[in-house]
Amino acid sequence: MIPTTITAFCQRQNLEITPIRKVILDHLWQNHTPIKAYDLIEVLRLKAIGSPKPATVYRSIDFLERQGLVHKVHALNAYIPCHHPGQHTACQLLICDNCNDAKEFCDDDLASLIPLKLAKIGFQPRASVLEVFGTCQQCTEAKTS
Ligand SMILES: [Zn+2]
Ligand SMILES: [Zn+2]
């Protein structure tokens, strides 16, 4: 289920959520782990939303990513839904090695550190991706209890 905060965001932004986009968002929200484009294509096929060509599905994912509704987990080449679209500029991702959970960690301080440090060596960053792998709180607690 797509949370009402997300549907409200789409309405406010006047974003057209086509059937394909809706199924993609729905599926991402149902799962806690990052989903690959390949799996999304399969889900769309099963839901019989036509049989969209991979290029169409990639375009839909692209759209959702550009609108801030979806984040790409680059290291896994997979996607997670954004929990607060339009409310953050920086987004670091924390990925659990154990349960594959991927969480957003939106720390502006952490993000602003990168251009600050790079300015010293004269590099102008256009974009950066920070993905941290480790053990999530739940898995850590489960291990120690
Ligand atoms: Zn986000
Ligand atoms: Zn975990």
Brief sketch in words of this structure:
This protein is of the alpha+beta class and 145 residues long. It has six helices and six strands, in the order H-H-E-H-H-E-E-E-E-H-E-H. It is globular.
Account of the protein in words:
The chain is α+β, with helices and mostly antiparallel strands. It folds into 2 domains: about 5-80, Arc Repressor Mutant, subunit A, CATH 1.10.10.10; about 90-145, Ferric-uptake regulator, C-terminal dimerisarion domain (Dna Ligase, domain 1, 2-Layer Sandwich). It has helices at about 5-10, 20-30, 35-45, 55-65, 110-120, 135-145; strands at about 35, 70-75, 80, 90-95, 100-105, 130-135. Strands 1-3-2 form a 3-stranded antiparallel sheet. It has a 3-stranded mixed sheet with strand order 5-4-6, with no helix packed on it. α2 crosses α4. The chain starts with a helix and ends with a helix. The mean pLDDT is about 90. One zinc ion binds near residues 71, 83 and 91.
